[in-house]
## 1
Amino acid sequence: MRLIKLIPEDTKIPFMGARLITFPISMVLVTLSLLLMFFHGLNYGIDFAGGTVVEVRSHVSPAPLAKIRSELGELGLGEVQVQGFGQPEDVLIRFGQQEGGELAQQAGVAKVKAALGEDYDYRRVEVVGPRVSADLRRDGAIAVVVALALVLVYLWFRFEWQFAVGAVLTTIHDIVLTLGLLSVTQISFDLTAIAAILTIVGYSLNDTVVIYDRIRENLRKYKKMGLAELIDASINQTLTRTIRTSTTTFLAMLAMFVFGGEALRGFNFTMLAGIVIGTYSSIVVSAPLLIFLDLRPGGGKGEEKSEPGSAPAKA
Amino acid sequence: MLHFSRWKIWAIVASCVLAIAFVAPNFVSRETLKTLPGWLPHRQMTLGLDLQGGAHLLLEVDTQTMVKERIDQLRDDIRRVLREDKIGYAGLGAQGLSVQVRVTDAAQVEKAATKLAAIPQNLSDALLSGNRVVDVDIAREEGGLFRLTLTQPGLEFRTRRVVEQSMEVVRRRVDQLGTTEPIIARQGGNRLLVQVPGLQDIDRLKDILRQTARLTFHLVEGTGQQVLEGTRPADTDVLYSQDDPPVPVLVQKRAMLTGEELVDAQAGFDSRTSEPIVNFRFNTSGAQKFALISQQNVGRAFAIVLDKDVISYPVIREPILGGSGQISGNFTVRSANDLALLLRAGALPADLTVVEERTVGPGLGADSIAAGKLATAIGTVLVVLYMIGNYGLFGVFADIAVVLNVLMIMAVLSVLQATLTLPGIGGIVLTIGMAVDANVLIYERIREEQKLGRSAISAIDAGFSRAMGTIVDSNLTTLIAGVVMFILGTGPIKGFAVTMGIGILTTLFTAVTVTRLMVALWVKKVRPTRVPI
């Protein structure tokens, strides 16, 4: 059988030379993302902003969106978003936190149910009160920070410090770009978005670690080679793997995006974007960062360790 | 790397067979499962509320009121002990968590100190630590000033007890709904999580959980508008009936009996009027009290009060000796049923507020399952085809490992009874994509080693052993993120982390060990000179 070779194997792409182009691009993207987050903001979902989401299926198809909008607009619930959702008869209704504490949130749903009457099936009702949303915001932020810190510690133990710092900077780069994307697309930023970000963190690190592993191995093998040349070789050696793994992961998540239903659409889109961002950054951000972090070939902790492969070989 | 001892081969095969055995119950209906012999695995994956539909409520126990009541009680206690001994005092007042009082007569300060020292209570914490917790701290200052402060350990002890008692009552109430496998758990300091799979009527659940359901019986001093006029005795209260318009009822503040002395309550119908009623029965001591009070008060009315609402105020026509009675009061069948349920389950020690609610209908849940299955199937097919296209026979090895991987994740979920949610399915699909990464790493390495001039067997050997360090490093970093998500995350984050974490562990087995076994067996049979990668 002839195997498909879409990606040329044994490439010699001068990534390090290109860093004078790719680094500024990354800088611009990061700056743009930060500006977007600052001025355009994220579309906080009810998990973090509090509020109510009601998903209904109309008994008539398509659902009378305009009618629903005008009926619910008169209830005094503040701004009520009414939008189609998946099937033509499905409607997503969302409104913000109500004045007057926890009980007022409950009253809002009752009003909507009374106004819509019997012509709809309630597929999903979610009400998040002000206290819970504040807690979820805090917990989400803690989760991201703790995950990053632990990874930093782990990599510090396994590699030299430059690798750990490089990996974490790359990960922050990925998080910022993902947040920028969420700001542009105004995809609801909720608990699933945090899960997506943490996964992107894991995925991007995974990619970065594979390249770093090869750089570390080559540092021991070719003690005389210049650092830029060595990093270039390492990226090229692992390039086929990087692209193939990204492709399979992308394909699997693409199936989830297309067929996995409306509820996780935002999550799946974020993941797809994250795979692209993570792959890009591990190639053109994480490895070149090592040069800026002043990694010296042959020095440091890595040298004291045993030959690559000998420890795991026992396993 | 390519040598496997016989027992190792059997161990690997046995793990795969076990995984298939444990995943099998998920493909059979629950009815069929019941007919199977008991020694076969019969656990199915637990589906989250987003997949099977149901109601999720997060309730906050109002501990502030408890604190306020404690402060009020503390003030009453101080007043009582000082009055008992006719000790003059001034400036009795509460401030934050403390109450202060100044004893005016300097000669009586010592006496007051010994009296006040009797107020703090020992809260035994014997079950947990054997520590004794004192609930009030007394500070004595210049000029006969005493400051009594509620201690932090005492408050924590009481809060914990109130939350635990509330949880017990909530559990009894939810159990009465007759749903299958509700989850009731404590979350954080003062919150209770209630998840009822399959329940659609969340409003009824909220109604049932929101009521304190404190039932009390009071003697009635008078009814009608006239009780609002003029002054009323200090030990009485005006409560209102549930009529339209509400009738004011003047009752004695002190309850003659409370719901705590009930042993049973059932909804029924009045034999004469056919209206829904609630029949109740007192325990022995309650029955005695009730008999005595009703004997002494024939001709007077007594009020049956539920959370400050007078449900009815019948006149005692004759002594009630049997210890049972009925409550009638404009009930519907449902409200009579709910009241009986609340009385059986007992009163809540504190108010509960709903701070988060999520309901998923069965239709959406079924749609999500269908979508999840389809996405998993298509994701698997895409990855399988891509791997075969890139690596041929070795791609097939990787593909067998991937399919086995998905089965193993499902088997582990079934055995651990971990909950599978829609984000969890997302985690499985992600694992499918990332699991082959280990194979890609190994195969690329084999290809490199072969290119360097190694023989097929030596290249395979080096490929597996050299790739191993990278595989462990890269998977461990992802696993760290997963573990953090699992520990710190809630809801969808946790659901996703469960399958992703399990997926990483099973990946290390299937993508490395199982693939290596397949490659080893192939090498043994074919004796290749070149690896077809």
## 2
Amino acid sequence: MPLLQMLSITKNFPGLRALDQVDFSCEAGEIHCLVGENGAGKSTLMKIITGVYQPDGGEIWLRGEKVKIRGPVEARRLGIGIVFQEMSLVPSLSVMENIFVGIYPKAKMKLLDWQEMRKKTESILHEMGLSVDPRCLVQDLPLAERQIIEISKILAQGARLIILDEPTAALSHREVEKLFEIIKKLKSQGKAVIFISHRLKEILEIADLITVLKDGKKVGTLSKDEATEEKLIQMMVGRQFSDLFPPRYSGGCPEEVVLKVENLSVGNSVHDVSFSVEKNKILGIGGLEGQGQSDLLRALFGIEKIKNGKVILEGKEIFVRSPEEAKRNGIAMVPEDRQREGVFLLRSVRENLTIATLEQRQTLSIINIKEENKELQEIVKELNIKVVNSDQEVSSLSGGNLQKVIIGRWLIAKPKVFILLEPTRGVDVATKSQIYFLLRRLANEGVAIIMYSSDMMELIGLCDQVLIMYEGRVVALLEGEQINEESIMSAAVGRER
Amino acid sequence: MREYRWFDVPVNRKILVAYLVLAGLYAISALISPSFRTFVNFKHLLLQTTPLIIVGVAQSLVMLSGGVDLSVGAIMSLANVVAVQSWKGMGNIGFIYLFLIPLGLGALAGGINGLLIGKRNLPPIIVTLATSSIFWGFALLLMPTPGGSMPPSLALILAGGSLVPTIIFCSLVFLVTFFLQFTEAGRGIYVVGSGEEVARLLGINIIRVKVYTYALAGLITSLAGIFMAARMFSGDPMVGQPYVLDSMAVAVIGGTSVNGGEGGVLGVIGAAFIFNLLNNILNMLGVSTFYQFVAKGIIVIAAVAITQGSSLIKDQNKTLS
């Protein structure tokens, strides 16, 4: 008998049918992944399980009994726990307090028993393989550890069905492995785990079952043996993997060099790096995480200080000491941490899109609204940004759309060099493809594009040249045919070709 | 990095700063001025600081919940004028009324603050500013000019010597700290102050927490009003005026963050003494009041910079390398 059974769930919103008779079930001791584009209905389905929304149609059965989950508190009582991407921990309090909020162990006269709390927390953390002092403050811990604490928290509250919403989006490979160990342990304890992610490779590694949603309907469920990346993409998007990428540069002869970097060193993380970016070509930077790639690109935009070396743009040497100077020189950048570095969350889409180029539309410091509207309309249409109107808050957009806003903002500025850091992280497959086509179009129009990505397939599919960095140095420069999994991997781990 | 713990109970590290500075200042003043070293001066300092400590505790509680209480001066004054009038003609039982009525009134006033802020989700600054006007209006209504009196024996006990006030503020700080560290209700204040959204997700009743936080603050504040009535041996509707801003400074210097969720009341005693000690020294040295104001302001800025500055560094996600 399955632990959870959702039968024929339907959920309507004004003007949109978010879920259309979706069946979903999960057994105890099963790792079930849920995939689909943004807007396919994954988070709506999860919100129904956790009691945030009520279904308009269908039934939910838990452990063989029909239930109505009226709210998050009831969901918790029924043993359903969810870990969101935005953490629900209290940062200024300790680990142990966070785990036991609301379920504090008490001594006589209802007074909190701190010693007991610490002991219990120690054993929970030990089981999770986390060696953190329970008295540590959550705000001092890195993201990956906080996530494990969140999982501990819902376990302490008695969760038997654990839902993880995009848990690996901001984790390094090692941290992901650790998370997977924990998930497997949960499985062996007979708990059920539902895992929502865009990272197909990871899903194929960990899942027992994979359910694909598309436009509010269930497309199908594949078992571990049946599933392949190709099949999943096809189910999610209706297209082949190879269609996701635009054709690469086909020119043949080397083009004019737009940006040249000579012997660049940045702090302690980048040493003596030289490369050049040719017109109409996309340069990708790859390698293992943390090898200096981000710092290199951030230095080109003026965020990090350049210790040594030269930057030559269109034949002239430039000095980029601040983002302002970078912008003036025609360099644009899309940062890694979308939410924190990329947008003004509380402001509108309009303001976020126009912020980089306000001075272009001003006369006597007064912004020309008509011109602004025109530009806005153009860019929203071009990038296919799903907005109701341009004055809505940017925080209401999905990851993919948010990224389009950030890219769109700099497009209006018509840069000469476009730097992107992990441009499609946390973005659904269909939008990824849109972004790839967009970047290729920009390249064809003469913009020099440099992008850092930890997604190897992305580098292979999109880039004309790939630079691999290891310990702050360039260890390989691959072109054309040379760009394949094998050569990227071997260069990335330090083996010179 | 751990915060300092005493038998696993969370204790804020920042209070050490307050007491170190206090010790330093005390030593300096003892060296500089002979008149400072007298017991009379010490007693005077203690009596002057007691109400500040009490109000500082109340303000700290409110700040911990993520808010601020600008009506402390008004509640204190209201309690003050009610105290000096409520015992009249009641004979011996009057003593009880002298305490119970102002305290009850303070709790009620605070409860009103908490209800408005919690249920309607109105910004605390605006709400308490408004209620400040209202409560002060009532105080002036009851007693337009200073007057009234207190039973002399009681006044002498409360504010005649230095022992009783010390017992009062020490036990207050102890009790409130105990409440904050060992009860679920107390921890609830930290959770709400640290992140209301998170608290809501965790199923905590935010309205209830805010009501009892502000009510408790009001109750404690009225204690200061009663004390002032004993000290001055009369009632004054404007008695609370200097305490509004000072209570906030003392709360912050005592280690409580203005953003909420961090801090406690253990440092309030040290902070209040630093505050008044400064005035005390400058007086002894014959420095004009103008410079005293300037010094006060500088100290507050410095204290805020030191205690709040570190929280800016913490807000970064680190990754395992």
## 3
Amino acid sequence: MTPTGSLPTRRFASHAEASRYFHDQGWTDGLPIVAPTPDSVEDMASASGRAPADVIGEFSPRRRSLSVWQAATYAVMAGCEPAHFPMVLATWEAMFASRFNLQGVLSSSGGAAILAVASGPGAAEIGMNAGSGLLGPGNRANATIGRAIRLGIIAGLGVAPGGFDASAFGHAGKYTFHFAESEPPPPWPPVRVRLGFARDATTVTILGAGAPRQITQRTGGTPESILAAIATSMRTPAQNVTGHGSYFVIVLGPEHASIICERGWSDDMVREDLADRSKVTIEEAERAGFHPTAGPDEDGRYVTARPSDILVVTAGGPGAAWSLVVRCWTRVDGTKPVTREVVRPGVATGGRLTVADSSFS
Amino acid sequence: MAIEIVMPVVEDAARQALTLAPAARLTPDGVIGLVDNGKFRAREILVAVADRMIAAGLAGSYAVHTKPSASRPIGSEDHAELAARSRLVLTGVGD
């Protein structure tokens, strides 16, 4: 007998009828879903190596919990392959970490999405896109893993736009916001190693994030010119973090990554530089009509991000020297990023080796 | 041929059985708890409401609890303390 856990089943004349019913009940993201049959859910759950009834987390504001079986159901609905499911589960586990403040991320009018950066061999094995168009359409793993999370948020946790999800606007990342890191140019170690994990581990790092902004710097040709362009995008005072600080994921495209890494800049140097360049002067804040609720630093400038609150990732495709800036939706006292290892059945890794000096560790 | 599909929503009897507490009876000497969520001028508007209630004889005083972060929910200890000392708690949701 198929272990349906606490989820009931219902009979439909066709998959299309089931998809329409799910939409009418408010259980979807607006797109058609793959109707989850008991067998398909069981196949999905089995890929985790965990008991279907295992509870991954509790969401007290809606008096809901999430089991492996439920997560598998939403993964089927999203179109995931079973091989994708360990990445889905690791993302859920990260989301239920208390420091992430899932209630705030899901409910805020700031419209946060769940940004997830995968690092490690497991991401490539399941075909995640780390290259051209990684936040766009066309890659099944990127598209469906993030969608499995959003469908679980809507159907499983009962958090729908216009209801508990009070997003003023929302953004496309609320459909899916998963992508993979491409291994950085030498001598930089990959994200997972910088965050204290073994090189053979696969990790997922999540952040409650606003919409991404793509920036270019194609004429300077130096680390300083690239970081100046990125910092300019980070430092707008027209956001509620100026003076308090926030978290940023900076995705260096291949041209920018090559220049920075090959000129001998370390990850620490890049983060220190960005933290300094992204500070906002009192005059800039006044010109923007912005009145920070926290005072300036000793140097008379408002902080945008501290070095430990910046994660630098290498990914994206070649072009005219692009990079990407993704900002946390709120300031540092409202949430924290979380990193978890993706546990793949039958794959032993070195796991977490240390806790790095990073808010993302 | 009909197909069997897993429904994605948990049947949770405890959640469905949730009911609202009976409405509090206001007294002229009662304390109004105000939860300031830290958003711009949240405290001012809550105090203005409390002042009007006191002037109308619906309460005797108010006490403000300011959340350290607007993005985080109120903690269970603060929640219990507010419930113990307040006849009524006022707050705002969102911005």
